[in-house]
């Protein structure tokens, strides 16, 4: 810390203890080296899968967890949910290559304290870690969240003409699920799914699933992360 910085409550009681959860060893090492320059931040645990992340956080009880969205295992959303049930509860900072505003809202809404793209600067990373630690120590438990301005400035275009149910069906269709699979997943009849898909095509001006998927992705109605990682399914590794 330099003499011009405002003292941080977390630093005042000692170093901020951080766990880094990312399946790329070189990235974890780079994060450790970057945080080491801050002086008041210490990486106390690492994990390469979602299950490992939950286990090491439960064991080491860090102040802050840096969590990648695309690790093998149960999925980052479920891992975050389990970590936030621990006592003492860590604060979660999402660090990912996905910067879609839709995902930002999703993970912030589920309890993340900050959301950073992997292109973030050292200053942004350290600020997010310190801020998350302050939230953890705050009696009120909330001091807002950190999201880089470039994400905030990127308009999150909504499919205003589509209902929530239609967006849900469109997402599952984009994942390659059949009408029967979508019906079983959402507890609907196949006829209802077919009717919803016909309505979707008419509303957005397309004639097929592939066209609907391409338009939904290009317009930001659904994200590539959501399409590639259905909830509860880990990423396979070759």
Automatic annotation (TrEMBL):
In Swiss-Prot or TrEMBL terms, this protein is called Response regulator containing a CheY-like receiver domain and an HTH DNA-binding domain
Q: What is the lineage of its organism?
A: Bacteria, Bacillati, Actinomycetota, Rubrobacteria, Rubrobacterales
Q: Which domain of life is it from?
A: Bacteria
Q: Which Gene3D superfamilies match?
A: 3.40.50.2300
Recorded GO MF terms:
DNA binding
Q: Does the keyword 4Fe-4S apply?
A: no
Family matches, as InterPro entries: CheY-like_superfamily, NreC/VraR/RcsB-like_REC, Sig_transdc_resp-reg_C-effctor, Sig_transdc_resp-reg_receiver, Tscrpt_reg_LuxR_C, WalR-like
Q: Which residues form the HTH luxR-type domain?
A: 155-220
According to the record, the segments passing through the membrane are: none
- What Pfam families does UniProt report for this protein, alphabetically? GerE, Response_reg
Question: Which PROSITE patterns does the annotation name?
Answer: HTH_LUXR_1, HTH_LUXR_2, RESPONSE_REGULATORY
Q: Does the keyword DNA-binding apply?
A: yes
Organism annotation: Rubrobacter radiotolerans (Arthrobacter radiotolerans)
Output one GO BP term. Answer: regulation of DNA-templated transcription
Residues in Response regulatory domain copies? 17-133
Q: Where, per the database record, does this protein carry 4-aspartylphosphate?
A: 68
């Amino acid at each position: 810390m330099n003499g011009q910085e405002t003292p941080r409550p977390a630093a005042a009681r000692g170093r901020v203890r951080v766990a880094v959860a990312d399946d790329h060893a070189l990235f974890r090492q780079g994060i450790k080296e970057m945080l080491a320059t801050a002086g008041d931040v210490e990486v106390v645990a690492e994990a390469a899968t979602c299950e490992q992340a939950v286990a090491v956080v439960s064991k080491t009880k860090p102040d802050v967890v840096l969590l990648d969205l695309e690790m093998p295992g149960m999925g980052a959303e479920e891992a975050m949910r389990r970590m936030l049930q621990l006592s003492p509860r860590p604060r979660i900072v999402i660090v990912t290559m996905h910067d879609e505003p839709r995902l930002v809202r999703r993970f912030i809404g589920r309890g993340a304290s900050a959301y950073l793209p992997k292109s973030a600067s050292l200053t942004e990373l350290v600020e997010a870690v310190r801020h998350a630690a302050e939230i953890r120590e705050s009696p009120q438990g909330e001091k807002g969240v950190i999201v880089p301005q470039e994400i905030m400035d990127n308009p999150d275009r909504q499919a205003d003409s589509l209902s929530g149910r239609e967006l849900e069906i469109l997402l599952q269709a984009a994942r390659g699920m059949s009408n029967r699979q979508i019906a079983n997943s959402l507890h609907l009849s196949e006829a209802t799914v077919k009717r919803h898909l016909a309505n979707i095509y008419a509303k957005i001006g397309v004639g097929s699933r592939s066209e609907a998927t391409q338009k939904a992705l290009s317009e930001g109605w659904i994200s590539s992360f959501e399409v590639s990682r259905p909830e509860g399914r880990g990423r396979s590794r070759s």
